[in-house]
């Protein structure tokens, strides 16, 4: 009932939701034809991710304050994870292949979308999942397509980061691929999507605002053969950047 009332009294939010669905379908369909006509390429992957991310960022009224991504050809981008909005932001700013849960295949356009964006959907119930993921990440980076991986493994409201999963750092350490830390901080803490909150419920509560402000900071590339050291350095950088962004956002 609350959701129905929210839909009725927030035509802007409904329009935005329809646009998200439309754009998701549009880029996947165009990407599918492109894939079948010309095969997979970095150009296809970047067009799909950037077009999808940037158009949705614009239509949702997401205003971004950010620094520049460090120059690097091959890297794994590791952001903290606050909300589903992170996906649109990362796609628009850094059109990397995403590493996500296998459950995303069940989302509308999820399975085909992963195919045209070279994204890696991980089934954590598989014993050989990490080894398979490592090979896929290495193959993607070797094609000059960076990879985005959320080391917390789930969304977290903050103010800093929750403990990181070990697997992603073992992969980065074993492959020798450098990691670029990324801090994401929303001015409105309620933009975080956590716990048992539903996607639609959260979307209709938060996306009726004229705009949402988000602060993005990229850190310095880190590489190390010892995954625990790599993990510690990346977490330290992200937490330091989040501390800084908390202070900036409060003024």
> What is the β-strand count?
7
Q: SSE order, as H and E?
A: HHHEEHEHEHEHEHEH
What form results from the Cα inertia axes? globular
Roughly what fraction of the amino acids lie in strands? 5-15%
Main location: membrane
InterPro entries: Plipid/glycerol_acylTrfase
GO molecular function: acyltransferase activity
Domain Phospholipid/glycerol acyltransferase: 75-187
Fold topology:
Blueprint: H1 2-9, H2 11-38, H3 42-59, E1 62-66, E2 75-79, H4 85-93, E3 97-101, H5 110-117, E4 120-122, H6 129-142, E5 147-149, H7 167-175, E6 178-186, H8 199-206, E7 212-218, H9 227-249
Parallel strand pairs: 1-7, 2-5, 2-6, 3-4, 3-5
Antiparallel strand pairs: 6-7
Domain Phospholipid/glycerol acyltransferase: 75-187
Pfam family, one: Acyltransferase
GO biological process, one term: lipid metabolic process
Structure, explained:
With 251 residues, the protein is of the alpha/beta class. The chain has one domain (2-249): 3-Layer(aba) Sandwich (Glycerol-3-phosphate (1)-acyltransferase), CATH 3.40.1130. It has nine helices and seven strands. Strands 1-7-6-2-5-3-4 form a seven-stranded mixed β-sheet, with helices on both faces. The model has no long low-confidence stretch (mean pLDDT 89).
Quick rundown:
The chain has 251 residues and is of the alpha/beta class. Helix content is 50%, strand content 15%.
Offer a few descriptive terms.
251 residues, alpha/beta, Glycerol-3-phosphate (1)-acyltransferase, 7-stranded mixed β-sheet, 15% strand, transferase, acyltransferase, transmembrane, Phospholipid/glycerol acyltransferase domain-containing protein, membrane
């Amino acid at each position: 009932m609350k959701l129905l009332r929210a839909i009725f009294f927030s035509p802007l939010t409904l329009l935005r939701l329809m646009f998200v669905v439309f754009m998701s379908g549009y880029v996947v369909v165009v990407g599918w034809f492109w894939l079948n006509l010309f095969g997979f390429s970095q150009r296809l992957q970047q067009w799909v991710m950037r077009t999808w991310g940037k158009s949705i960022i614009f239509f949702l009224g997401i205003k971004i304050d950010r620094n520049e991504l460090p120059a690097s050809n091959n890297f794994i981008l590791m952001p903290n994870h606050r909300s589903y909005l992170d996906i649109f932001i990362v796609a628009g700013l850094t059109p990397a292949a995403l590493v996500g849960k296998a459950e995303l295949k069940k989302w509308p356009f999820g399975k085909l979308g992963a195919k045209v964006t070279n994204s890696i959907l991980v089934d954590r119930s598989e014993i050989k999942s990490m080894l398979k993921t490592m090979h896929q990440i290495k193959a993607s980076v070797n094609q000059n397509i960076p990879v985005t991986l959320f080391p917390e493994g789930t969304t977290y409201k903050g103010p800093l980061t929750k403990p990181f999963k070990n697997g992603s750092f073992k992969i980065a350490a074993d492959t020798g691929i450098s990691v670029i830390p990324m801090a994401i901080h929303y001015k409105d803490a309620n933009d975080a999507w956590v716990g048992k909150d539903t996607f639609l419920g959260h979307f209709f509560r938060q996306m009726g605002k004229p705009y949402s402000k988000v602060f993005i900071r990229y850190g310095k590339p880190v590489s190390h053969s010892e995954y625990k050291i790599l993990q510690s350095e990346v977490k330290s950088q992200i937490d330091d950047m989040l501390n800084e962004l908390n202070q900036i956002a409060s003024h």
